[in-house]
Amino acid sequence: MTNTIYPPADAPQSIQFNNTLDNLSYFRDPYAKETGRDASGYVIAGLTLESKFLNPKGDPSIAVLVPQDELQSRGKILFLDDGRTVITASTTVLVAIDPKKNKGKKQAWLFVTGPMPTGVASMKVDL
After folding, report:
1. 39, containing H or E segment
2. Is residue 31 part of a domain?
3. Number of domains comprising the chain
4. Domain of life, per the record (predicted)?
5. Which residues 6+ apart lie within 8 Å of 59 measured at CB?
C-alpha cells in the first residue's frame, strides 16, 4: 500500500493560522476505507507565539492536523510543547498504524523536530 504525501487535486491553495508555521505536509490515511473514517489532512508544525526564533531556552511549539473535510477549522492539536521537548517545531509527519495490529484504534505515530535539533519527539496520537 502506498502512502503518498501529496494532497488531492481539489485541495485549497491556502490555510490561514494566527501563528508561525513551517514545512507543511499532507497525511493520506491509508486505512480510510477499512475504518470508514478518513483522517487525511494537512500536518502542520510551528510556533505558538511570536518568538525570538531559535531561543536557546526553547520556543513554545505546536503540531496540528487539519482534516481535509474541516479546512476552515483550526484543526486538531496533536502536540503542544513549552520548548523543553522540541526547541522549535518546524517539521512534523504522521505515520499511520494499522488498526488490525493496534486493537482497532485509529492512531498514528507523530514525529516532530525543528532546525538544529537535539532530537526528535515521537508519540502515538489518536486520529
Report:
1. none
2. yes
3. 1
4. Eukaryota
5. 47, 49, 51, 53, 83, 87, 88
pTM of the model: 0.78
Rounded CA gap, 114 and 92, in Å? 9
Span 34-54, pLDDT tens digits: 999 899 988 988 877 655 556
Using DSSP's 3-state secondary structure scheme, residue 86 falls into coil
In a domain, 14, yes or no: no
Residue 3 lies in a domain: no
79 lies in which domain range? Answer: 21-126
Q: What is the pLDDT of residues 57-83, one digit of tens each?
A: 677 888 888 887 666 566 788 988 888
Is residue 46 situated within a structural domain?
Answer: yes
- CA 20 to mean position of chain CA atoms: 14
* CA-derived radius of gyration, the chain: 15
